[in-house]
Amino acid sequence: MIQTQAQLGDFLNLIKDETELAIDTEFKWVSTYFPQFCLLQIATKNAAECIDILALEDLKPLFDKLYQPNVLWIAHAARNDIEVLFLHSKRLPEKVFDTQIAVDLLKNLRPEDSNFGSSDFLEFQRPLHRNRMHRAAP
Fold first, then answer.
1. Contact call for residues 62 and 10 (beta carbons, < 8 A)
2. Residue 68 to residue 95: CA distance in whole angstroms
3. Could you read off the pLDDT of 98-138 as tens digits, one per residue?
4. Domains of the chain: residue spans and CATH
5. Which residues lie below 8 Å from residue 11, measured CB to CB, with a gap of 6+?
6. Contact between 12 and 65 (Cβ < 8 Å)
7. Could you tell me if 8 and 61 are in contact, meaning their C-beta atoms sit under 8 angstroms apart?
8. Residue 98: helix, strand or coil by DSSP?
9. Is residue 37 a contact partner of residue 27, using CB atoms and an 8 Å limit?
10. Is the pTM value of this prediction over 0.90?
11. Cα(63)–Cα(42) distance, rounded to whole angstroms?
């Protein structure tokens, strides 16, 4: 858990060359007009850390890393993360991969057949019907 500027500096130095950051924000948004940013989780291929936002005075070094033009954010339901971070940084990320949107896109690619993915191609009569082939390669 990062709770000091020195710890934040060490972590940012550790991930300085990373261009793919999995991020997740934790915030309280009850009885307020705006979310209260509490915690930021960042993971890379080689490191993972939780950053206690409320314990830090200077978030500029963190924001400088997050908003580098070559950095890709990987997040689930990224809209909330983007909004919370924007309220504190007044910046938007250059690149975002939202896993929630990706899942929805993948769902739209597969047939509506509820048995998709569990077909027994050994049992199908030969030659294979075009509909069966579509299940294998949509």
1. no
2. 10
3. 999 998 888 877 655 544 455 555 666 666 666 655 555 54
4. 5-109 (3.30.420.10)
5. 2, 42, 47, 49, 51
6. yes
7. yes
8. strand
9. yes
10. no
11. 12
